[in-house]
Design brief:
The chain is mainly alpha-helical. The protein is built from 13 helices and no strands. The chain is 78% helix and 0% strand. Helix 6 runs antiparallel to helix 7, helix 9 runs antiparallel to helix 10 and helix 11 runs antiparallel to helix 12. The chain starts with a helix and ends with a helix.
Length: 209
């Protein structure tokens, strides 16, 4: 409903539903997610508090609390909440991805790699998983590993534009400019306005002159 009728109508709908059902925790969490999209972190936090008050075992509320902390740029608190959430529900890849993002922001490439390895151990072909692992390698200057992860992502998800650019970036860093340009051009065939591919192609073309 919030997607079609606007966020405010989504809030009204969930508030009305709260008066009709005893299963309130999911509705409070839904409210929190909408408030967060409106950048209303105060009401989002209140909704999460309400969700956990009516059902302390509705653990997804912890995930959204972590999202609220991230929105407030309280990354340490967010990481702690995601860890608590994963302790009771380690099957949700979204929390691992958020911990990965926080680690990359620090940057802590060891921690970021650990999160992606844990995710891929559970879901070996998780879309974007090997790409994210490759991003860790690229930033840590392990270009061969970055290339390998990009190619594995493309094997699992052919044409994944971010993996194409990652492959091009790794090849470029290793001095394989023609192969790098081929990857950037493949990405541009998928999206001719994709900025990372345009930048990569422009730089590579310059080096080939």
């Amino acid at each position: 409903i919030s997607e079609h009728d606007g966020l405010d109508k989504g809030i009204k709908y969930l508030e009305d539903e709260l008066t009709r059902t005893v299963l309130k925790a999911p509705l409070y969490v839904g409210l929190a997610e909408i408030y967060l999209r409106k950048n209303n972190t105060a009401d989002a936090q209140k909704a999460i508090d309400s969700a956990l008050a009516v059902d302390p075992k509705y653990y997804y509320a912890l995930k959204v609390r972590g999202d609220i902390f991230q929105s407030l740029e309280k990354y340490k608190e967010a990481e702690e909440v995601y860890t608590s959430y994963l302790a009771v529900n380690n099957s949700d890849p979204s929390a691992r991805i958020e911990k990965y993002k926080i680690a990359m922001r620090k940057p802590d490439y060891v921690a970021a790699r650990k999160e992606m390895m844990l995710l891929l151990n559970q879901y070996p072909k998780y879309p974007g998983g090997h790409y994210m692992l490759g991003e860790v390698a690229l930033r840590a200057l392990n270009y061969q590993d970055a290339l390998a992860m990009a190619e594995l992502e493309l094997k699992n998800n052919p044409g994944q534009i971010q993996a194409l650019v990652l492959s091009g970036d790794a090849l470029k860093k290793m001095g394989h400019y023609l192969k790098a340009l081929e990857r950037f051009n493949q990405a541009l065939l998928a999206d001719s306005n994709y900025i990372p591919a345009l930048k990569g192609a422009g730089y590579t073309n310059h080096r080939l002159k």
